[in-house]
């Protein structure tokens, strides 16, 4: 049984932002009382998030917690039931075109143009974002090469594997050097070699000023990359901070200091000590 101490939401260092404590114009991503319902289901429950420029922010939560719903509202794909969203100081639902121009998006379900080749799709994306033809060509060829897609660049996307689709979608999402990049499960379906390449690209982007907001279930990746994480459960933000802050926030710092992100995650979503035995296997 784990000896990890109970998470104490009243601990002094708890820093989940309140609706009025954040100035949207000074942050990369801000949500204020963001709500989304689907019928009776409250998928996102008055979410107040704040991500500073240049941060690598990991957004975690169990299945069905509300991560994808939140990301879709942040990028202008799903209209909130209530609340507001700013990206780089732009109110996403008041100025959607301005907001879309400065962000890159890798959604959960990739809706790609299947009859285009990878090379054509990246070119198309570059034109959509107003990148010059010379820059499109230079950036596209480098992306294809770095992502190990050069040999398949003229094949239609319909014939791509899951990982290849993800990589071409990532290339299309960053060709305009977005100020804020949103990624929903970017590492799902990607092999270890490509995964390392994608990690390097993402880190390079943050070093050059791009803010990254990404969701993932892969704790080691989040632990390695993120400067800060937010954990959502049943639509509510239940923890937020750097890994060190989250560790410190666990009661009895002594035992909590070596906690992994997985320990912290299981603790705050209340899944640590549940019994998962199947009675019919006994
Ligand atoms: N279009 C929809 N219609 C009805 N309910 C929806 C819809 N989209 C999401 N939901 C519900 O909202 C809740 C949050 O779903 P969401 O996809 O945001 O979770 P998630 O955290 O991204 O989960 P996962 O890790 O499994 O991808 C779930 O209960 C889901 O069933």
Automatic annotation (TrEMBL):
Signal sequence residues: none
Start and end residues of each stretch annotated as Disordered: 1-20
Superkingdom classification of source: Bacteria
Native organism: Tengunoibacter tsumagoiensis
Keyword Hydrolase in record: no
Domain ABC transporter: 29-259
GO molecular function: ATP binding; ATP hydrolysis activity
Keywords linked to the UniProt accession: ATP-binding, Nucleotide-binding, Transport
SMART domains registered for this protein in UniProt: AAA (SM00382)
Protein name: ABC transporter ATP-binding protein
InterPro entries per the UniProt record, alphabetical: AAA+_ATPase, ABC_transporter-like_ATP-bd, ABC_transporter-like_CS, ABC_transporter_ATP-binding, P-loop_NTPase
